[in-house]
Amino acid sequence: MDASIELPDGWVDRTVLTYVGPDAGEGSPSLVVTRDELTPDITLGRYASMQDAAIRAGSCAGRLPGRTRRVPAAAARPPVG
Predict the structure, then answer these.
(1) Are 55 and 32 in contact (CB under 8 A)?
(2) Whole-model pTM?
């Protein structure tokens, strides 16, 4: 179903869609699609470069935000005794 609403003056649509794939034993892959309006002076290529720089600057050494590493259950348990 498609739906739309009229936003009040000054509001912007920053829709975020998240698609999640099946878990194949290593976690579920996901794809996040965001909506943003570009000003006439920003090309799609420049916008993509800005997003890439923001991801790299805001995360641990080249890892994407939200990326996690699985720890084997034995390693996650505190030592006994």
Answers:
(1) no
(2) 0.47
